[in-house]
Amino acid sequence: MDKNKFNKFIKNNIDDDFWNNYIELVRQEMIPYQLKALNDEIENAPKSHCIENFKKAGKVIQQIAKGENVKVYPVDKWEYKESECNNNSFLGWCFQDSDVYKWIEAVAYSLSNTKDSKLENECDEIIDLISLAQMENGYLDTLYIINDRSKIFTNLKDRHELYCFGHLCEAGVAYYNSTGKNKLLNCAIKFADLICETFNECGIKGYPGHEIAELALIKLYKLTHNKKYLDTAEFFILQRGTKPYYFDKERGYRRENDSIDYTYNQAHIPPIEQSEAVGHAVRGVYLYSGMADVAKETENDKLLSACEKIWKDIEERKMYITGGIGSTVDGEAFSFEYDLPNDLAYNETCASIGLIFFAKRMLEIKPNSKYANVIERALYNTVLHSMSEDGKSFFYVNALEVLPKASHQDSRKYHIKPTRQKWFGCACCPPNLARLLSSLGDYCFSENDENIYVHQYIGGEIKSDKAEIKINSNYIKNGKIDFYIKACKPFKLALRIPDWCDNFELNRDYNIIDGYAYIDVNESSSVSISFNIEPKIIKCSNSVRENIGKAAVTRGAIVYCTEEADNGKNLQLLSISKNSKMKVNSDLTITASGYREKEDEKLYFNYKESTYEKENITFIPYYKSCNRGENEMSVYIRIKE
Fold first, then answer.
1. CA separation for the pair 398, 362 (Å, rounded)
2. Closest C-alpha among 447, 433, 371, 9 to residue 222
3. Residue 35: per-residue pLDDT
4. Spatial separation of the C-alpha atoms in residues 241 and 361, rounded to whole Å
5. pLDDT band at 427, cuts 50/70/90?
6. Which CATH number is 445-531 given?
7. Confidence check: pLDDT of 641 > 90
8. Angle at 130 between CA 124 and CA 131, to 5 degrees
9. Which of 95, 252, 276, 545 is deepest in the core (most CB within 10 A)?
10. Where in the chain are all domains bearing CATH 1.50.10.20?
11. Rounded CA separation 475/458 (Å)
């Protein structure tokens, strides 16, 4: 492991024609809307029960302090429904606490961008509520506090206590960094201390069923410099998947052979031995992010090698053109290599967000454009696609092909919604989306002793001991970016060359290394780079059976699609040729010369050549799709030879 290549991300104070609207949309619309959802105030939307659960837990803590008897309820479900549970018990999914924590983290990042006293006060009130729900020993999970404290840490595989801790920890660190307030951070530290005392070689040799505690403990370690948090993160990763399986012991299962199990949890073999992405996709990328963190902090080359192999498996065999991952609804999971169906795709929003987390950590270890390229692919396509234009409805699943009739009538496609939803009972994705977009400035630039790296071409301003740089970006509109550099000392500016780019112009001499153009900067100056972003027709590997004879249209970072609203029904009858003329319109839609196949009159008949009519076809950015009511949508289109 080459420590000289380690680098640290630096904040971009974003000012970008494309992204400003989204960041303000999160602050002004999405965050307030999500607070209403957490308080169960959205009409005709599934209840969250989040805030309600913290209030209930606070009352239980008061009862315990007074020495009163506290009623016990079951802790044996994934979801606790109002119709099935006592009103005084925990309600919602077993991981419901995490939605509040992710919302607070989003608020923290938003406050670091724009001060908002009203929002900060609202957040402080919720933090007060959370602190009142914490047990004296530091434990904080409302399911077990409300329902049965005797069962704490008895079902790590399924009940998400350590997952909720991870999000508490991330929120506490973020809110402290943004506001200087430490109440939530102290809650996280108290819980972290309990976890460190509980899980170790001399204690419980368990690990999270749903990963994220690993990367969260690293964040806490970096803030406090307390090595026990790093040690516990490392313990969780190195203990995971070892035999005899902890999850066997936990559930009293006696395994009669040496069979492999718990692939869904990435706990089938030790992470250091893993080489492919398997199981629940969100859990996977959260684990891989933690693995990369621990590999870097402990300089563990074998663990880094596992991360690199897993990355290769995702990028080259299991990722959609939109940056979506986790293709199957069964277990919300990675499937086998090249199994990337369009109309059955799961592609959970959280999975693409987690993939971005993983990529960022790999970039911190070794700058290579392949990681930043995937961040871009996921960010501009799946992530933006998951939210409506008003920031008040969301996709959990991000399919590449939608037929509304099938979504309503075909049970195999019930998970694919034709339009975004107001909220979800399992609402992990909306607050995850809010925290990512609010922290977008932390994903653009990084530096080490010699270099400043440009990973994402998002306009704004950065400050470093090497230079102050103002970035004027028209990356999405015309592919041109200007850098105005006020140099403090000599350094190299490393500009990512996107994988979709065949031609670019740069006004300085450069050397290409691992997908970055390195430029010597010795004095204050300006640098301009311009990428050719003419529309392209992209072919998918013929190992992906669903896309044989089809292609996708892209322009720069943006993947495009067709919709019924523009092109009429039966999108499967449309086609373009490799020589189709394409015009980019002022609203960034694309008009292409193409064809419509005449619809057949019979179900079966003797083979004959199809009849086509010429037709102009409208393509819109994938992220803009499904904003005009229920209608057909397709990313891939047939190619007429």
1. 25
2. 9
3. 95
4. 23
5. confident
6. 2.60.40
7. no
8. 90
9. 95
10. 3-443
11. 8
